[in-house]
Design brief:
With 395 residues, this protein is of the alpha+beta class. It is built from 18 helices and 6 strands. The strands form 2 sheets. It has a 4-stranded mixed beta sheet, with helices on both faces. A two-stranded antiparallel ribbon has the order 1-2.
């Protein structure tokens, strides 16, 4: 789908999508709370006394191979202490595409269920509901999905971000539980290639995602020094990362973050990170209560590259997730559909925004269109059921 950037090759450690679609980019925004069906979130686990075959059903519901603990994180920690295990915390959100991939492609694998059952108490945390915001703040979660491995005391042993492959999850967990550093391979790469700025940037951004600021900063400094004019496209990434991970998220300073993003735009106006910064600026302005200025920033974003459908989808995601002028977001999505009428993600966004603007039947028609365009996408099948409920049973 155009709004979703292609995934990098996944290591068993850290990868993250922070592109215009930002399907799962960061732990940064409020999310809908107006529907019990939405609160069901990312999947429909269906444990039964006789274990049902794991996988995705024809109706889009998911039967997990992993036995996720039904309780709070503190209760999971107590259970882990009693059983001499660690705790695996899957932090995600219902709107997150990569979270659905993790549910549908990894947590349905029988071997993963067996592996985790022996070693951990597994618990799911919706980052934006119930205790989720506290968990995100406590462990400085930077993006979704993040898989945390905790001691039974609650102390973090390690984490993996954007893992959507069963082998990567298993090998990463083995390293963490064995006491190894999941970033060791990246460290070794930098040591072996000290002049490789891209390797240095990958390690720095991985440290940033893991909230290891002190280790990331000198690496970022070295990348900036080696690419002062952004000739390699790395300097702009450094400025964006610092604004997003450190100033906006870790410091929680929206005004300073806006200033950092605008500094990026001033130094490297043609960089793709400068275009992405418009949305990030909008998010921080929304947090500061200036929705009119926030929408102006999103309008500037799509005006910068009017041919880019992904930016219109990004606008739609912003309005939907932030609850910031959904009518404006809907107009951007409609403009995107005029350019790409078979884009399923745009149809999904139109469904969400139509719902927010008081058009339940239009929302249902839009989600059915998304599901028809991508009939194998289990998430859309689940959303059809949700929107049928919102529309009073559908038609």
């Amino acid at each position: 789908m155009p709004a979703r950037p292609p995934r990098p090759a996944l290591s068993p450690v850290v990868a993250v999508a922070l592109a215009a679609g930002l399907a799962c980019g960061g732990a940064e925004s409020p999310v809908p709370k107006d529907s019990k069906a939405e609160s069901a979130a990312r999947a429909d686990p269906a444990p039964t006394p006789a274990r049902e075959a794991a996988g995705v059903r024809d109706d889009g519901s998911v039967v997990m191979a992993v036995d996720f603990f039904d309780g709070t994180l503190e209760q999971a920690l107590a259970k882990a202490k009693a059983e001499g295990k660690h705790v695996l915390v899957d932090v995600g959100a219902y709107w997150c595409h990569s979270c659905h991939d993790l549910d549908e492609q990894v947590f349905t694998v029988a071997a993963i269920g067996d592996f985790l059952r022996e070693r951990v108490v597994a618990v799911k945390i919706d980052a934006e509901k119930d205790e989720g915001p506290d968990v995100v703040a406590r462990y400085k979660v930077q993006a979704y999905p993040t898989v945390l491995i905790l001691e039974a005391t609650g102390v973090e042993r390690g984490r993996m971000v954007e893992v959507a492959d069963a082998d990567a999850l298993k090998s990463g967990l083995e390293r963490i539980l064995g006491g190894g550093d999941p970033l060791a391979a990246l460290v070794a790469e930098v040591e072996a290639k000290p002049d490789d700025l891209e390797a240095r940037y990958r390690l720095a951004s991985s440290y940033a995602l893991a909230a290891r600021r002190a280790e990331a900063e000198p690496l970022y400094d070295a990348v900036l020094a080696g690419d002062p004019d952004n000739a390699k496209g790395l300097a702009a990434k450094v400025l964006y990362d610092r604004a997003a991970f450190f100033v906006a998220k870790m410091d929680g300073d929206s005004r300073a973050a806006v200033a950092r993003y605008r500094e990026l735009q001033g130094r490297y106006p043609g960089a793709k990170e400068s275009i992405r910064a418009y949305r990030a600026i909008g998010r921080e302005l929304h947090r500061l209560g200036d929705d009119a200025a926030a929408i102006q920033s999103l309008e500037a974003m799509i005006a910068a590259k009017p041919e880019d459908v992904a930016l219109k989808a990004s606008y739609g995601w912003f309005s939907f997730r932030e609850r910031c002028d959904p009518a404006a977001g809907l107009r951007a999505v409609e403009a995107g559909l005029a350019q790409a009428p078979k884009d399923a993600e745009l149809h999904y966004l139109r469904a969400e925004l139509r719902h927010l603007t008081g058009d339940p039947q239009g929302a249902l028609a839009s989600i059915r269109e998304a599901a028809a365009l991508e009939p194998k996408t289990a998430y859309y099948q689940r959303q059809v059921r949700r929107f049928e409920g919102l529309a009073g049973g559908g038609a």
